[in-house]
Amino acid sequence: MFQKERLNFFTIGGQVNNSSSRDREAIDRAFSIIKRYEMNTAAFPVYWNRLEPEENTFDYSQVDYIIDGAVRNGLKLTLLWFGTWKNGASHYVPGWVKKDRERFWRVIDALGNESMVLSPFSKESCAADAKAFSALLRHVKKYDKNNCVLAIQVENEPGIHAAPRDYSGMANRLFEEEIPEELSKFVFEKKDTAVTTKWQEAGAVSSGSWRDFFGIQAEEFFSAYYFAKYIEQVAIAGKQCFDIPLYVNVWVMETQNRVPGVDYPCGGATSLVLGIWKEFAPDIDCICPDIYFDDQKTYLEVCRAYAREDNPLYIPESHADEINSLYVFEAIEYFGLTGIHVFAIDATVDEQGALTPAGEAYRRTTQILSSVKPLLEQYRGTGKIRSVVQQEYADSMFLDLGTMYGRVYFLDRIPDEPYIHLDNCHEDEKYKKYRGKGLIITAQESELYLAGEGFKLVLFPKQTATKRASVLRGTKGLNANNGPYLSVEEGHFDEKGVFVADRERTGDECDMGLWVSSDVGVVRVLLDV
After folding, report:
1. 43 burial class (0-12, 13-18, 19+ CB within 10 angstroms)?
2. Residue 240 CB: number of other CB atoms within 10 A?
3. How far, in whole angstroms, is CA 404 from its chain's centroid?
4. Residue 462: what pLDDT?
5. What would the pLDDT profile of 104-142 be if each residue is shown by its tens digit?
6. Is the pLDDT confidence value at 1 over 60?
7. Mean pLDDT for the chain overall
8. How confident is the model at residue 173, as a pLDDT?
9. Between β-strands 404-410 and 396-400, what pairing exists: parallel, antiparallel or unpaired?
10. How many angstroms separate the first and last alpha carbons of the chain?
11. Angle at the Cα of 40 (from 35 to 41), degrees rounded to 5?
């Protein structure tokens, strides 16, 4: 999403707590914490009930203060529109909307109870949301003179977190009728694997109701179609005022028992119905999964589902902790991640104002990502970026780096002190105990960049076995004396993306492998090959 037009930008950001946009003290505090993480982007919600407290009366003071704060702190900004839906509910709609139940319909559950969720079938709700969203975008375009606003999120984890669909009389009639012609055509043309699979499992009918077409998943397909159509109308109205990238975030289905309306809001762009959203909400530039999983398999499974040719992978919500710090590097290599934000960034400090242990672990990751940001933007999706992640119990990993082979050794699993020497500034035990993680980027055949922590890289050329055996002579095959280096330098990238060397490494500092640490920036290696 952030790779289009002027927005070739890998966003490393923090999203504030839901209520942190309500007062200026909370906003200022959140900005200060985001800066401590050395992030480049902040994400703040904008509430419909604050923007339009009375119908047709708009108050932009909240938005203006957030934009001013981003400018003061030198940060880019994403604004999150808490409009009709937030986490499968309608908490942030104005009071005048909540009170008028005839005009702004609610979802009715299967037992006939009225929920607190506005119905996607209410044309009045859609029109009111679109009008307010348009006013927001029109104002942002006029007020944001510094172009700090990168993108705007439309709604927040939309769907119904009370039932799998609306069971009102109108919705029931639509559910029993023939599915819309545009959707049946989409199904017949087999434009999406997940949709086609469910249709085939239900019998591959040529006509019929939602149940006929999609079987036991009919409720989710029904809700997804109408939520997508609703939010598409809001997006169209907004883009007519300001053509800025728009995205929708998703409370994903890969959680707990995967029951729609119970374990996640039904109607959102889950992996099951992502194809329907992409087809019927084309003005949404990116559909983005919120990922809070601690197991690698599910984390990468979700990344794989959302990283499509028509949908770049961007993670707008995740945890600020060490586990997420590992998987983000794999998401960059395998799925071309365009950016990542962590939620509740202003809750990652203790009572004394220090970062929590989990926050401190993630801060080192933001340092690593920031150090190679220009390279992420340049080489995303090219196959030149390799992730280094120390899986549990692993002591090393082998890499094919083009003209060279590489062996990554993790510092906390090397038993002999001489082989884990870094330099005189990094002898503290903590540097040797960090779990290995980071990136290796092959810019050219003879030019590598490394960033990360907790590992060393030993390189050896792709030559005959005899020559390789000679290169790797020495205790435990770790001796890299007389390695193929023209130069090894620590440095940083300037504002134009040009590498600037800050310190040279020779002798002891690279004899036993190329090491990295989050506090040294990026390491550039020029090879003699």
Report:
1. buried
2. 13
3. 32
4. 81
5. 999 999 999 999 999 999 999 999 999 999 999 999 999
6. no
7. 93
8. 98
9. antiparallel
10. 37
11. 95
Query: Is the distance from CB of 358 to CB of 322 less than 8 angstroms?
Result: yes
- Alpha carbon distance 118, 106 (integer Å): 4
Cβ-proximal residues to 262 (8 Å cutoff; 6+ apart), any chain: none
Burial status of residue 236 (CB atoms within 10 A of its CB: 0-12, 13-18, 19 or more) = middle
Sign of dihedral through CA atoms 139, 143, 146, 149?
Answer: negative
Q: Which two tokens stand for residue 7?
A: 């927005």
The tokens describing 108, both together, are: 């009715």
Residues 77 and 67 sit within 8 Å (Cβ to Cβ):
yes
Give the span between the Cα atoms of 223 and 218, in whole angstroms.
Answer: 9
Which residue matches tokens 């090894």? 488
Tell me how far apart the alpha carbons of residues 3 and 249 are, in angstroms, rounded to a whole number.
18
The residue behind tokens 């003699």 is: 528
Residue 2 has pLDDT above 60, yes or no: no
Q: Which two tokens stand for residue 192?
A: 């999406």
Those residues with Cβ within 8 angstroms of residue 444's Cβ, 6 or more apart along the chain or in another chain: none
* 200-259 residue pLDDT tens: 999 999 999 999 999 999 999 999 999 999 999 999 999 999 999 999 999 999 999 999
- The identity of residue 265, as a single letter, is P
Query: Which amino acid would we find at residue 112?
Result: G
**Placement of tokens 């290696």 in the chain:** 525
Two tokens at 145? 């003179």
Residue 263: count other Cβ atoms within 10 Å of its Cβ. Answer: 16
Query: What stretches of 322-388 show up as alpha helix (H) in DSSP?
Result: 322-335, 357-371, 373-379
Q: pTM of the prediction?
A: 0.95
Tokens of 92: 């942030």
Query: Cβ distance 441 to 449 under 8 Å?
Result: yes
HEC readout, 94-109 = CHHHHHCCCCCCEEEC
CB 268 within 8 A of CB 215: no
Residue 70: which residues within 8 A CB-CB, separation 6 or more? Answer: 31, 42, 76, 77, 148, 149
**Residue 353 phi, psi dihedral angles, 5° rounding:** 90, 5
Q: Give residue 149's Cα distance to chain centre.
A: 17
CA angle 90, 91, 95 (to 5 degrees): 95
C-alpha pair distances (Å), 287 with each of 24, 61, 153, 283 = 30, 29, 10, 11
Calculate mean pLDDT across residues 353-357.
93
pLDDT at 472: 61
- How many residues are present in the chain? 529
DSSP 45-85: EEEHHHH-SBTTB---HHHHHHHHHHHHTT-EEEEEEEEEE
